[in-house]
Amino acid sequence: MSGSVFLSNLDDFIAPSQACVNPLVSAKLESSADTGSSSANASGKDKRVTLSNDFSKTEFDEVAVQPNLIRTTVGTGGAKKVASVSLNDCLACSGCVTSAETMLIQEQSYEKLLYKLNPITLENTSIVVTISPNSKASIASFLGMNSVECFLRIAAALKSLGVTYVLDASSGGDVALVEAREEFMKRYSEGQKKEWLKPPTTTAISATSINKFQVHANTDDAAIGTPSLQSVAEDVGSPVLQTQLPVLSAHCPGWICYAEKSQPQALPYISTVKSAQQILGAVVKKLLHPSSEETFAKKEVYFVSIQPCFDKKLESSRLDFVHEGTGAEVDLVLSTTELWRLLEEQAGTVAATKRPKLSETITLEEGEEAIDPAGSASVLEYLMSLAPDAHEGVDLIEQLGRSFSAAGDAFVAATDSNSGSGGYAEYLFKYAAEKLYQVDLWNGPALQYKEGRNPDLAEIDINTVAPASTAPRKLKFARAYGFRNIQSILMKVRRGNCDIDFIEIMACPSGCNNGGGQVRQSQGAEGSSTEGLRETPSASRERVALVESVFHAHTVLRKPDDSPLVQYLYASERLGAPLSDAARALLHTRYHAVPKLDVIAPLAAKW
């Protein structure tokens, strides 16, 4: 990347800027059971609130006693209050910024899917599962299978448990690309650079309603001069398209969470197009389900998404994706690892076995060894014992929701390179080059990006790819993966010296194929001595490279316009056209500048 200013204090780990809101505003122990154990507890000086995460348990001292904003339960012996932090609690505060992946999210687990799969529940519920291409590539690379066979055999396994439909998230990705390209072309032709300003503070009530906050002087004697927020509910209808350039991609929930809490000035630049996960959930629940055959239409739809990223759980719980009548667009999100655990359970858990190294070049830290996810041999045997699902699916819903070639031996995609994180930059750049300058990049070699200080920060300029004989053309795209690179490129946007038109942003270094929920080489059996062994950098790079190769193998090109789901959606009797009122209501969303803790509860702030 060009530029002479280098920041030395940027990192991919964003430390919490302040303590979590919820423990700081927990209530006093009021009952005698709560207060009778000791005078210290009664005085409130010894109370603690425990938050659980994937790696450890961190305790935060309670420093202020305010009205209880979360549900609490009495701990063992009544001497301790344990706070249960929900997804909405996590999204509602502005304390931590990117630690969502470390939260132990109890309401989003594969045990909940198994509960839904019991015969009694299935009498009134149809379960629809969509699998991310990154997730199937991760599992396929571990099992030594191609991704097509892996998907079809996993689909067969899920259906044997009672799942009604198994879809490919790439079908929703095609719709997202169509909306994103039209949004970009509109903003490119009409957009303008504006000042780096924070939008009004809001929170979501539903897909069409928000709370708008206004700051008022506090007249309370205990907090004179301290500002407070007062909210007013407002119906806002469909999301409004933005006009700012550059356009920042929006399909990474970790990046969106960071922007809303730490960089709200960036929100007007972010694309309003939903991610493939949310698009597919909305389409199934609001269009396909009501118009389907009688048996499916009479049952409640429970939509499950398998993703490489834990932050997708947080995305699905956003109130912006809750609709009157149909509820949440996505009911449950499982990581790739959780899908693996589910398959492992069904295969019959066996003792963890050593797996051959991916290559002779893998090296591990002293004391570690290359191990297999527990029971991979049994999982492979289990999947191979099942007849693969038919690639064309059982009916129209699976035909629309899958992305196979006509022969069923390959997946189809809009691009065949640089697409591990959705392919937004790659596809939109080729599309814009053709529409704006009549430059055909569809059938040429893979686009070559100019890398910056690391491979995750790179840009591509049309004047480099296809030099003009006349005046230089203006079309420059970039990708920024990892928070260090995100912070660097946002600094250029803030200073007004960014000449880039579109930036594909991902929170994870190396993008979605390296998501936090992907199966890793050191993934051991839960509770075993090998569980959680740390992957060395060289092993991590090799794993990601293997997943990338499996991801792009068995893939043929197909423009999103030829997708059956795209053609179905944009029929005149449904959405009509991209960016139409109906399309914006179903396929677009809005973002919120999250209220700050020192304004919500000034007396509870802990610094």
The rough form would be described as globular
| Arithmetic mean of pLDDT | 78
Give the biggest sheet: 5 strands, mixed
Strand percentage lies at 5-15%
Helix content: 25-40%
Rg, please?
25 Å
Strand order of the largest sheet: 10-19-18-17-16
Low-pLDDT regions: 1-11, 15-73, 79-85, 91-104, 349-374, 524-531
Secondary-structure-based class equals alpha/beta
The number of distinct β-strands equals: 20
Q: With helices defined by DSSP (H or I, 4 residues minimum), what is the helix count?
A: 23
Give the end-to-end Cα distance, rounded to a whole number of Å. 36 Å
Protein architecture, described:
The chain is of the alpha/beta class and 607 residues long. The strands form seven sheets. A five-stranded mixed sheet has the order 10-19-18-17-16, with helices on both faces. Helix 19 (483-495) links the parallel strand 18 and strand 19 (502-506). Helix 9 packs across helix 11 and helix 14 crosses helix 15.
